């Protein structure tokens, strides 16, 4: 039987292939090592709290005594509580009204995108609400709505108890929340407007596109990533609204302005019902998860 020559056992093309394999393997190891700290952070500060909350929602616990397993008891009580449906209805109201922030932010961004002297100062004024904390915004609008000395009472000539009337309190708080949220959407759209290629705009002008046609057929398609991000962040912000409610109304009057996030806080901090509060957190997370998964699938489908 003929033997294979020694020179053929080490063909010229095999050594570069092995070198490429070693190179690819080292790159994979380097990528894994770079990703490892971030993965650990996500596991410790995101995944573990989520799993811990789900596990805790099956127990009755006040934070100090021993836990008592109640199974689905917290969820059964939650779905029978009238406050839960009030909070859920208020979250839907926040969601609907908060969707005004992206178009308002787009309008402000289009106005600020002009090359006019002094526009930088105007941009800083519109940007200011975004850097203010929720507590500061809540205090400002609480003073604004005050029926005795507030600016709204001076404008109307008489006081209206916006934060003390169940008919107006939700709209008053949402209007206050729209102020910084519109500024955030404005920043996203301004970033998108600066990245639009001027050659595309010039070509559209040559083809006769002006004003509304230019906006609808050229600018808005180019701003699709910014629009997606603005809508996602706005909806998540509406679902997790808490700080302004805590500062401006405390969930009142008579729990008429409470939302799921504040309801969760109320049960945990005031009544020491940690397991019941965890059940509320799981329901809120499930609502957010459905929305996030839907939009991620839609985004991936559009990219394909």
How would you characterize this protein structure?
Keywords: Cell membrane, Membrane, Transmembrane, Transmembrane helix, Transport. Belongs to the binding-protein-dependent transport system permease family. Residues 87-295 form the ABC transmembrane type-1 domain. It is a multi-pass membrane protein. It is found in: Cell membrane. The protein has 15 helices and two strands. It has 304 residues and is mostly helical. It has two domains: 12-50; 68-303, MetI-like fold, CATH 1.10.3720.10. Helix 4 runs parallel beside helix 9 (169-194) and helix 6 (119-131) crosses helix 9 (169-194). The radius of gyration is 27 Å and the shape is flat.
Which second-level CATH architecture of the largest domain applies? Orthogonal Bundle
CATH superfamily of the largest domain, please?
MetI-like
The overall number of domains is: 2
Main sheet strand line-up? 1-2
Protein structure class: mainly alpha
What gross morphology would you assign? flat
Mean pLDDT: 85
Low-confidence stretches: none
CATH topology of the largest domain: MetI-like fold
Cα distance spanning the termini: 56 Å
| Strand content bin | under 5%
Gyration radius from CA atoms, angstroms: 27 Å
What's the level 1 CATH class of the largest domain?
Answer: Mainly Alpha
Order of helices and strands: HHEEHHHHHHHHHHHHH
The DSSP helix count reads 15
Residue share in helix = over 70%
DSSP E strands, number: 2
Tell me about the largest β-sheet: 2 strands, antiparallel
Subcellular location: Cell membrane
Organism: Pararobbsia alpina
Family: Belongs to the binding-protein-dependent transport system permease family.
Membrane topology: Multi-pass membrane protein
């Amino acid at each position: 039987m003929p033997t294979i020559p020694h020179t053929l056992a080490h063909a010229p093309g095999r050594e570069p292939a092995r070198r490429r394999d070693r190179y690819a393997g080292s790159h994979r190891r380097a990528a894994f090592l770079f990703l490892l700290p971030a993965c650990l952070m996500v596991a410790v500060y995101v995944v573990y709290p989520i799993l811990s909350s789900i596990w805790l929602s099956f127990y009755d616990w006040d934070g100090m005594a021993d836990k008592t397993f109640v199974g689905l008891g917290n969820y059964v009580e939650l779905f029978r509580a009238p406050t839960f449906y009030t909070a859920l209805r208020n979250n839907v109201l926040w969601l609907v009204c908060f969707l005004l922030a992206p178009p308002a932010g787009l309008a402000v961004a289009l106005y600020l995108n002009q090359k006019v002297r002094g526009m930088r100062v105007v941009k800083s004024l519109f940007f200011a609400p975004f850097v203010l904390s929720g507590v500061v915004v809540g205090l400002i609008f609480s003073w604004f709505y005050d029926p005795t000395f507030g600016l709204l009472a001076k404008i109307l000539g008489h006081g209206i108890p916006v934060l003390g009337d169940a008919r107006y309190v939700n709209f008053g708080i949402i209007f206050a929340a729209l102020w910084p949220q519109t500024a955030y959407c404005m920043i996203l759209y301004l970033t998108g407007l600066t990245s639009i290629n001027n050659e595309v705009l010039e070509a559209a002008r040559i083809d006769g596109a002006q004003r509304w046609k230019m906006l609808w057929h050229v600018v808005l398609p180019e701003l699709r990533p910014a629009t997606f991000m603005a809508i996602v962040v706005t909806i998540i912000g509406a679902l997790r609204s808490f700080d302004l409610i805590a500062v401006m109304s405390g969930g009142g009057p008579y729990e008429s302005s409470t939302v799921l996030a504040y309801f969760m806080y109320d049960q945990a901090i005031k009544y020491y019902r940690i397991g019941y509060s965890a059940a509320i957190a799981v329901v809120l997370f499930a609502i957010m998860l459905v929305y996030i998964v839907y939009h991620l699938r839609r985004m991936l489908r559009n990219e394909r």
